Amino acid sequence: MSCSYSLLCYTRKPTKREEANNADIALSMHLALRSRIDSAWTPLNENYGILFAAGVPTASVPSAARRACTAARRFKADRFDAPRPASAAVDVDAVMPDVDIVLKSLKDPYLFRLKDGRFAVAATRTARGGDPDGSEASAFLLVVSRDLTSYDQLGLVRLDTVAGVNRPGVEYDAQSGQYVIRWRDDEGHALYAVVDDIESAVARTVPVAGADRDAATVRHDAACYGIDDVVPGNVITISDVEAARLIERFGRVYNTGSSAPTCSLMASLRGPEAREAVRWFADTRADLTYSDGSKATRAVDWDTDALARLADDAAEGRLKPGESRTIRGRIRQTTYPVPFAVERADPSVFAWNFNGKPMFLFIATEDADGNCIDPREGRTHMPLRVADTIEGLSDAAGGREREIDLLVRGDLNSEGRAMTGCFWAPELHVIDGRLSILFMPCFDGEPTHADGTPNDRAGKPDMWTGRCHIMQLKKDEAGLDLDPREPANWTVPEPILGPEGDILNPVQLISLDMTVIGDSGNWYYAWQQVGSVWIARFDPSNPARLTSRPRQIVVPEFAWDNLIAEGPNAVIRNGRIFLIYSGSSVGIDYTTGLVTAPAGRNADLTDPASWTKLDYPLQKSGLYNGQWQLGTGHGMWSRDEDGNMIYVFHNAEYVNGRYGGRDAQVRRVHWSAEGMPLLDVETCEELDPAYAEVVMEIAVA
């Protein structure tokens, strides 16, 4: 193995939420590569964490309820956390975030190699935010990884001491065939232990071998790394192949070239047939290449005058075999307004065919000044926008002025109950051939809570009364869709119920953020309840009733997604289901997580084991096109006019320390060479202006 790159692991000193570097983010393992040209250190993943300590399910949670805790699947009962009773969620084989899971952070990460060449990390586990959690007296966290893009958290290695295990480090000694564990106790004494197999050490207590006379005093000069707020760990060497893998996943991807294919035209064509052949050239797309080896195609605005001249020459028989013509064009790159729609959260953009006419629809949660329960002094509504283009849906193009209120406060649902608030997270889907909207209304609160305590939302919209509902567009007698812009053309909203007609969430009552997944002939709803993502099957011919019991599949287990996993939305690509979800809590800390599952192989999507979770956010707060976007999340996959995949999401309004709600944004998605969706490719990275002009050669045969 050619070892030619230096790799630094580190944490950071926490600074501010506004810099996406609060303690939840700073106290995780970061990685940086050293340049072989100028020896400068380059942080990966925009100087954001890559390995986060997994939260620990409490001892009172039975194994059947822990199935969605996939990051902590190997953890044993933890004696370092105080006993606490389990939540009511365990009665339905689930866990409740921040109640049944104790969140953690880490410090002092130490990278090393296992005997077989894989990577491993030893680190001090802490309570969330960095305070001691008790484990540092006698144990350290052990994590293994094939390539440092995903991690298997094995748990704590316990040493036979209570004197402190500080700055743990591990090395494999090839001569003895053993792993040497080194640390310092709370008095600063250097100690060591030896094990034959470091991975199996999590299952037992490792005896202390004695004082480590070979220990060196390590002085970390943070300034020499040139990384903001760095708290350095150690440095290892990695191969070119390993470095390339890290750069591919955590580096910036940018456009490196463009080209257009050579097309052919038969000289024997004449008249309308020749003109039609030339017309097809206008749809020729350009090929784009990128720094990671990935590719994309884009529509091109070709020189219409040149195409017209070519069509005339072809129609009149003036083309000769063997000659060629050159058509110039510019790659089409729509730049959407920022913000796209002010105070519109949980946005959904949907490309739809209205009885043969293509159109785009936009629907979202009203979030005026951050009040999404009863905004604008109780004038709750469901705003719908319709346009011929995506850009036409934006505020800048007059989309806000053309909004239609499909629902308003006081409208009745199918049970005859007045919907008085929320209208949260409306999503557009086609279910059984019918345009449908999934959303959550809420109702006025009762005088008291279930435990008899007074309800401060009595007689006012109460989010905890919210339930997932569905409304569908009606059709006329000929089976054609009625106009979606007319509220009367939609069915009365109906609550979605369980297989026995029961509510979806027996633990907390509220259910929201519902979406649709179709795979292998099966239809699923995925939604949020109990602070996590749940899933169940349904029959599209009866979409208001589940056909299977709801199951919890995504639990927030890390400090970055901490309190909640919500807003699921899925797309299928190249045999994989990509389900994004939003983590943390509404505000400037919001992030976007990702779980994946096999598509087209009849996998049981109600089984948490079918899903693989990314250890770090897919998208997070950061600079985009030179401007900070904080609290990015609750997104939806869609497509633009040219068939390119786009990502529609919201970010936080945050000016001079004041949170003012959420604004909708639209970006195109780039797929990396390894098949990962990239949601933050900037405008000049997507298309370098130097490659915007392309030439198409037309060969006459």
From TrEMBL:
It comes from the Bacteria. The keyword Protein biosynthesis does not apply. One of its GO terms (biological process) is carbohydrate metabolic process. InterPro entries: Glyco_hydro_43, Glyco_hydro_beta-prop_sf. The keyword Hydrolase applies. Keywords: Glycosidase, Hydrolase, Signal. It is an enzyme of class 3 (hydrolase). Gene3D superfamilies: Glycosyl hydrolase domain, family 43. GO terms for molecular function: alpha-L-arabinofuranosidase activity. Its EC number is 3.2.1.55. It holds the Pfam family Glyco_hydro_43. Belongs to the glycosyl hydrolase 43 family. This is Beta-xylosidase. It comes from Bifidobacterium pullorum subsp. gallinarum.
